[in-house]
Amino acid sequence: MRHVDSFEIQPPTNQSPNGVPRSAWARAGRRVSRWHRPYTLVLLLLDFGAVALVSWIAISLFDQAASGFAANKEDPSWFNTPAWFYTVAYLLLPLGWLVILWGNRAYDRRYLGLGPDEFKRVIRAAVTVAASVSFLAFAIKANLSRFTVGTALVGATVLILLVRFLARLALHVIRKQAGQAAHRMVLVGTLPETLEVYTAVTRSPAAGLIPVAIHLTDGYAAARGIETPIPVYAGRDVLALVREVGGDTIAVCGSASAEPGELRRLAWQLEGSGVDLVVAPQLTDIAGPRVHIRPIEGLPLLHVEEPTLSGPALLLKNLMDRVAAGVGLVLLIPLFIAIAVAIRLSDPGPVFFRQPRVGHEGRTFRVWKFRTMYVDAEERLAGLVDQNETDGMLFKIKQDPRVFPVGRFLRASSLDELPQLINVLWGEMSLVGPRPLPADDGDFLGDVRRRLLVRPGMTGLWQVSGRSDLSWDEAVRLDLYYVDNWSLTYDLSILWRTVGVVLARKGAY
C-alpha cells in the first residue's frame, strides 16, 4: 500500500480540474442528506400554528379591544372591517412571522437540532416582528390595543420557542433510538486526529453526526495493529469513498486542514455533489463562543478569546447560586428530616459525612454530604484498595460493601449530595462546576491544577457525561473544558441535563 501525504479527490466528470462546472445544468444541486427538509416543513407548520393560536387566544381574551381596532365607522373601507382584522391576525401575521424567521435563518439546517443559535434567531426574529408591527401601526395610524398586540407578540415568541424545543426533543429521540435524521461522516486526517473527532462527535448522539469511515492522510501503515471503531481507508478518492460508504459529509480533521491549497480544492470539487464539508481544527476543547473568524486579506484567522473567569457574569452566577441554595434548603427541610431518620435507622452514627475537599484557588473546605457508609468505612478501606474500579485520584467500587442499603439508594438518586447546598450558600461551592476532590489525595499538578480557578460544583460536565463511568483523564478533560468555556447559559444547560441523568441513575454508585 502506497503512502500518501494528503487527501485525494478526483473531479467529477461534469467539472474541470479547477472545480468549475462544465455545465451549470449538470450540477446535482441536491444535498445527499435531506433529513432537514421534512423537519423544516414541520417547523414551518408548527410556527404558523403557534402564531395563529396565540392570535386567537389574544382576541378571545380581549375581544372588545380587538373589535375596537377592527371597526372604524368613519372609514367604511374593507381595510377597517372585522374581516380584514381577522385576515391579518390569522393569516398575514403568521406568514409575516415565517418570512422574518426565514430571514433570520431560523430554518437553516446548520442551526437546527443542537446548540442555542436556533433559539437566539427566534428571539431576534421576535424583536424584528415587534418593531415591524409598531412601525406599521404608526404608519397607518391604526387604533391598536397595545395589550392585545403585546400579548400576541410575547405569547407567539414563547410558544414558538416551546414548540421548537419539543420538536428538538423528538429529533433527539429519533437520532438516539433509530439512528435516523443524522449526517454520515467520513473523517479525513491522521489517525490520532480522526479518532479524537470520532470520540467528540459520538459522545453526543443528539448531535446527529455518525462517523462511518476514516480516510488516513498518512497511509495504512499509521493504523497497523491498532483497532479502530470504524473502517479505515487510505489512498482513495475521497468523494468516491463517501459514495461507497453512504456518507453525506466530509470532516477534515486537524492538520489535514492545513495542507496548502488542498482544502480549497476539496471544496471546489464538492460543488454540486450534494456532500457537505466541515473542518474540525485542533481546537476541540474550545467552545464556539470563544472562537471568532477574523479574515485578514483573504486569510481566515481563528481568534480565540480568553476564558471569562471574572466580571459581571461571575457575580451574577454567585448571586444565583446563593439565592437558589437558600431557597432549596428551606424547601428541602422535610426531605432532609426523612433522610436523616432513614440513615439513623440503617446504621447508628452521624447523619452527615464531612470530608476536606480542595476548592477555589486551592482553599480547603469541608463538604457536606449525607452519610452513606457504615461508621467503620475508613478502617475497611485498606482491604479494598486492590478492588478499585477507576483510576486517577478516585476510588470507586460498584458494589462497595461499606455502603449500607439506604446509602446505596441515596447514591443512586444523588440525594446524598443535597446537603452541599450548605457549601453553596457559604460560597465554598457552586451549583455547577468541576467535581470537588478530596484534599488528602496529594498535590494538584499540571493541567489538573487549572480546575481550581473556579468553585467546585454540585453538578458539572462530569456528572452529565457519565459520572463514575468515566476515566480519570476524561473527567479532568471535561472539567477543564468547563473552566475554559463556562457561561450562565451553559450552567443552565448542565442543570437541565442533570435532571435527566439523575432520574436515569446513570454512572451513580
Structure notes:
By secondary structure, the protein is an alpha/beta fold. It has 16 helices and eleven strands. Strands 3-2-1-4-5 form a five-stranded parallel β-sheet, sandwiched between helices. A two-stranded antiparallel sheet has the order 6-7.
Any chance you could write out the topology, listing elements then pairs?
Layout: H1 36-61, H2 63-70, H3 82-103, H4 117-140, H5 146-178, E1 183-189, H6 191-202, E2 209-216, E3 232-234, H7 238-244, E4 249-253, H8 262-269, E5 276-280, E6 291-296, E7 299-304, H9 312-331, H10 333-346, E8 352-358, E9 364-370, H11 377-381, H12 405-413, H13 420-425, E10 430-432, E11 457-459, H14 461-464, H15 472-485, H16 488-504
Helix pairs in contact: 1-2, 1-3, 1-5, 2-3, 3-4, 4-5
GO molecular function, one term: transferase activity
Membrane topology: Multi-pass membrane protein
Keywords: Membrane, Transferase, Transmembrane, Transmembrane helix
Distance between the termini: 48 Å
Q: Can you list the strand order of the major beta sheet?
A: 3-2-1-4-5
Tally of discrete structural domains? 3
- DSSP strand tally: 11
Unreliable sequence segments: 1-5, 22-29, 64-73
Assign an overall shape. globular
Largest β sheet strand count, sense and barrel closure: 5 strands, parallel
**What's the overall average pLDDT, rounded?**
79
Fraction of helical residues: 40-55%
Note the beta-strand portion: 5-15%
Report the structural category.
Answer: alpha/beta
Give the helices and strands as they follow along the chain.
HHHHHEHEEHEHEEEHHEEHHHEEHHH
Output the number of helix runs. Answer: 16
Q: Which radius of gyration do the C-alpha atoms yield?
A: 29 Å
